[in-house]
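Hi there, hope your week has been kind to you so far. Thanks so much in advance, here it is.
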Amino acid sequence: MKRIILLFILTIFISIISAQEIEEIAITPTTTGNQNNPMLASSDNCFFINWEDYRAGASNPNIYGISVEPDATTSSFLILCVGTGLQNTPVVEYDSGTNKFMNIWFDQRTATQLYAINSTCSATSGSEWFVDDITSNLSSPEIAFSGTNYLYVWMYNNAGSYEIRYLVLDNTGSPAGVVQTLSATGIAKYPDVAYDGYEFIIVWEDSTASGKGIYGKYFNSSGSSLSSSFLLVNDGFASASAVCGIEGTVASNSKFAVAYQHYDGTTNNDIYAGKLDHLSTSSITGNAVCTENTAQSEPDIGWHNDGFLVVWKDARPGFSTDIYARFLDSLGTPTDTDFVICDATSSQRTAKLAYNSSANKYFCVWTDGRNGSNDDIYGALINIPKVVVIQPNGSESWAVGTTQQIQWTSAWVENVKIEYSTDNGGSWVSPSITSSTPSDGSYNWTIPNTPSSQCLVKITSADNPNILDISNATFTITEPDTFQLVGELDNISATKKVEVSGNYAFLPARYNSTLSLLAVDVSDSSNPTIVAATAIPNAAYGMGLEIIDTLVCLSTSDGYLHIFDFNTDTLVLIGSYDIDGQGAEVVGRDTMVWVCAYDTIRWLGISDPTAPYQLATFAASSQFKGLCLRDTFLFSTEGIITGGSRFRILRA
């Protein structure tokens, strides 16, 4: 048979929905005839989709394919088979060992047979081959690959009596045995198969002496039976099951998850999903994924690193059907609400899923009737709920007091919490940078005074703490290298001195036209706030200042030392002493202060601050300018009245 490759040029229409969470791709929007029943698989580089194609006529379906890359780039159409007779119900699976997709379909060109062909993301690979003779009336096929063998399963209609059959193929696509019957109850329908890295499972709907519901059976990686059939979902109203594998690092951590439709007993089907423990044959109770009043059906389920995605056909529009979906967490519990993937006019159906771990995206493909008389193939790339830190992401150096922009990308996240660590993630600083801010991709952060070379930023969904990301490597918060104005009071004047204790600064200043002593709350450095103000006696200027516990000691221009008591929002004058000279520096500790009064240092006791008293004096023929107390020594600078300066050390 002559094979034609890359025959048609794909016309692609892309619409961006929900801020890049869903990107729709029209795969066959202008193709004549019907295209329906798409199937797909994923490699690291692309999703590969195949389908039944009726462009050659309603009585001559062929098999076509196309690849879609995670960035929405598409290949041209690939003609997988245009043989005579009927070719239909294709499936596809990926072999990472050969980096090829195996496409297999039901073929009636000469008899009822299976044929297959390999493809890459851009072309067919080699020629098609005959796989096996098979009985007619094959429908609902599915396939999974273990890296060693394929397990191909389908529903067989034996004159109205339905059976589940399967065939094991080796990694070349050749039969590794004969066709086997899994269930011949006459009402066994709609199988699916998956591989979890260690075992296969086939699931289907059935009714036996054990009950009616969803059944399962395990097989090893070679396709040999590991268990008897068991009642997986003991629910007489359960049907149309889908299954996905969860590959763990060890066999005991590998599991499966199923989705199925459940008739609610009145008028409608709902969607449920649940997880199976490793090789468990116990029945599970699924979680309700969607229970809208209208019918939901035809579910499929996929697994990603942090949970699952379930898709289904949904009749809530009324006279047509849409494609809806919902994320589940790693335990199989639904998160947030369901969302629409496609709600175009007319009906959408037969949704199928595949996940690309390299891009962390799903691709959902479906049969779409929006174009009127013909069915087409549409699909959508779906981002996983995520947050990704862009900046700081390692090696940045941000100075204390500067404003830097934290940057991130996200999907399905409305608000985020932003935290930082100064010990490489050992702990996270409280309070956080912000407990909630819109997830718009950036946040301006004024760098706090917490210098460290082991800093990280963590960004978490405000609604789901399991969705988070942390800087890939540490960055550095450095000491400030320049002065930066961060806050000010601009309604004061005549300031000469300031002292700080705890969250409060104290300063004498002209405030509201009055010479006053002010207490300023500086706990928020960007917004200093006056919390107390009291007039300085005699309208004198404040010259020297010392804080001892709650006592504020102020020397004044008119020759006094005044003592104020501070309590959160009040400053109360409680004692004064005439120092007989213009006040200057004041130092103190415990119950004593030393104050410069022009040419004299006075040593005062303030054990009773309401009645300060003099202990000793030191006089000189000079004006004292500066005074510092360290241990039992006083250090002074003086301006000699007759000229010059000097520095002295006194024992206090």
